[in-house]
From TrEMBL:
Compartmental location: Cell membrane
InterPro entries named in the record: ABC3_permease_C, Lipoprotein-release_system, LolCE_TM, MacB_PCD
Keyword Transcription regulation: no
The keyword Ribosomal protein is assigned to this record: no
Ranges of residues in domain ABC3 transporter permease C-terminal: 276-410
Alphabetized NCBIfam families for the sequence: lolCE
Full protein name: Lipoprotein-releasing ABC transporter permease subunit
Signal peptide: none
Transmembrane segments: 25-51, 276-298, 318-348, 383-403
Top-rank lineage group of the source organism: Bacteria
Keyword list, A-Z: Cell membrane, Lipoprotein, Membrane, Transmembrane, Transmembrane helix, Transport
Organism of provenance: Acidovorax facilis
MacB-like periplasmic core domain location: 30-244
């Protein structure tokens, strides 16, 4: 099977013989363009993979405290029929765990120190089925016995109040008691059963957990305020929430984990989009260096083009030769960039520590950042568009010089040869 002469000539021009100084210079510019495309593609893959890794780490730590879906009654009231809501939710095939909870806000006081807190009443026997935090702190949460009014505090909250296991603190409920002397806030002394560290500062510094029956007594509720669910696939939370909205009985509100932290996820997606655009400009600059390379090649090969035209080559064939040359540079640069980027992205947990040891520095100090290791998660949804965009830009950059080559007049080109 014969290779089309356009492809053979395009590949030959890509390799750019170095018989003359001019050819050598053209080859150097072509190599620089190829290297620029490779580095741009590699940078895009590495940066987006690291951003995906950070997003996954923060999301996983967040979901160790937050359930995939929350079902709750309007205005913080108790669920009208918690048992029925639990039973109906468990009937969904995507739900793997369900547990009741009480959500409220209160003040926590220790001496003169006072902190605003998020109070979560839980059932220790069922909480492990909906959050990883409960599963990893099962021994501490099992100390939450109804009637004993014990609490488990976030590690940062406990440190800010200066308390540890066994200390007594005062929980102040927002709704007070009406007495002849006026409205008196409801106070309840609680014993600290232990602490937890989720790795997410927002919850470690504000979350208080106690038994849901104790929470119901303190906040004068007739039952749990909601139900928390864990799903087989966290990425299907929005679809499952819509299904539950159609199947659950009663006037209930449903919220999935993406809605609870919508601002944070929107900010991350915007940042990722902007980084993609900025780094794509690097690839675009490298790709359009091909324009100057091909213009110089066309000028250098005018005699060759004229001879091919006199032998019967059509303008379309001449244009194809130089399109092949530019496309080859783009394809090779893109492939090298993909290999380099994926190689670094998949081995960043080895490369970054080696660089830190060589420079005697720490990029993510443990005492400042929650994540002390550089995470990376390459995703095909990022890699495929990067490769396609790089190839398209390389192809577009070849069109004008190739068209100029097809317009070369053989008589004019051979006049001074």
């Amino acid at each position: 099977m014969q290779i089309p002469y356009e492809l053979a000539l395009g590949w030959r021009y890509t390799r750019a013989g170095r018989a003359t100084r001019r050819n050598g210079f053209i080859s150097f510019i072509s190599g620089v363009s190829m290297l620029g495309i490779a580095l741009g593609v590699a940078a895009l893959i590495i940066v987006l993979s690291v951003m995906n890794g950070f997003q996954k780490e923060v999301r996983d730590r967040m979901l160790s405290v937050v359930s995939h879906i929350e079902i709750f009654a309007p205005q913080g009231a108790a669920l009208p029929d918690p048992a029925r809501t639990l039973a109906e939710a468990r009937q969904n095939p995507n739900v793997v765990g369900a547990a009741p909870f009480v959500a409220a806000q209160a003040l926590l006081a220790r001496g003169e120190d006072m902190k605003g807190t998020l109070v979560r009443g839980i059932d220790p026997a069922l909480e492990g089925a909906v959050t990883d935090l409960a599963a990893t702190n099962e021994q501490v949460l099992n100390m939450l016995v109804p009637g004993e009014f014990r609490v488990v505090l976030g590690g940062e909250l406990a440190r800010s109040l200066g308390v540890r296991a066994g200390d007594v603190i005062t929980l102040i409920a927002p709704a007070g008691q009406v007495t002849p002397a006026g409205v008196v806030p409801r106070l309840k002394q609680m014993t600290v059963a232990g602490t937890f560290d989720s790795g997410h500062y927002e919850y470690d510094s504000a979350l208080v957990m106690l038994h849901h029956e104790d929470a119901q007594r303190i906040f004068r509720l007739e039952g749990p305020t909601g139900v928390r669910l864990k799903l087989k696939d966290l990425h299907q939370a929005r679809e499952v929430a819509m299904e539950l909205a159609r199947t659950l009985s009663g006037q209930l509100l449903i919220r999935d984990w993406t809605q609870q932290n919508r601002t944070w996820f929107a900010a991350v997606q915007l940042e990722k989009r902007m980084m993609f655009i900025i780094l794509t400009l690097i690839v675009a600059v490298a790709a359009f260096n091909l324009v100057s390379t091909l213009v110089m090649t066309v000028t250098d090969k005018r005699a060759d083009i004229a001879i091919l035209r006199t032998l019967g080559a059509s303008p379309k064939s001449i244009m194809s030769i130089f399109v092949v040359q530019g496309a080859m540079v783009g394809v090779i640069g893109t492939c090298v960039g993909l290999l380099l980027g994926l190689g670094v992205a998949f081995n960043i947990d080895v490369i970054v520590p080696a660089i830190e040891r060589a420079l005697n520095a720490s990029f993510l100090p443990k005492d400042i950042y929650l994540i002390s290791k550089m995470p990376s998660e390459p995703q095909s949804s990022d890699i495929v568009p990067i490769g396609v965009i790089s190839l398209v830009l390389s192809f577009v950059a070849t069109l004008y010089p190739s068209w100029r080559a097809s317009r070369v007049n053989p008589a004019e080109a051979l006049r001074y040869e």
